[in-house]
Design brief:
The chain is an all-alpha fold. It contains eight helices and no strands. Helix 2 packs across helix 3 and helix 4 runs antiparallel to helix 8. It comes from Elysia marginata.
Length: 144
């Protein structure tokens, strides 16, 4: 599954902007794949927890993989001067449009790391500290 399904699915996932709806859909897709692998019908009323246990997992790991990739990519961009960094951190002159602001990639990184944006920028410059932040994503808390 990881070879034939996840590889093409995760292509360029470092650049995605995730919201609650897309996270929910990606988790549902992952659970659907696990059920298809085990030939479990939706009529059998098997809970996600039991389905994950039968696969040998504690929790779905697709979203965690995406978040980890995003964090690693942001750390890489932050440490190097490139056009991608300028685009990611750039500001557009002019007036803001009406309505709610769209979610941004930087907003996702700030939410994932559970740190203020100034702390995120500073931490990403130090590779060793940034690796500990990305390693502790599965714990649900970022180290200070």
């Amino acid at each position: 599954m990881k070879c034939f399904v996840w590889s093409p699915f995760l292509y360029a996932s470092e650049t995605w902007t995730l919201n609650k709806n897309t996270e929910k859909r990606k988790e549902a897709m992952e659970m659907w794949i696990y059920r298809r692998m085990q030939r479990i019908s939706w009529k059998e009323k098997v809970t996600n927890k039991k389905d994950l246990e039968s696969v040998g997992l504690q929790r779905p790991e697709l979203l965690l993989t995406i978040q980890r990739r995003k964090m690693k990519y942001y750390g890489h961009l932050r440490r190097h001067d490139s056009i991608q960094k300028r685009i990611l951190e750039g500001k557009i002159d002019g007036r803001r449009g009406r309505g709610r602001r769209r979610q941004t990639c930087l907003g996702n990184i700030q939410e994932t790391s559970q740190m203020k944006m100034c702390e995120v920028c500073e931490t990403a410059l130090d590779r060793r500290r940034w690796r500990t932040v990305t390693a502790h994503l599965e714990d649900g808390m970022a180290p200070s």
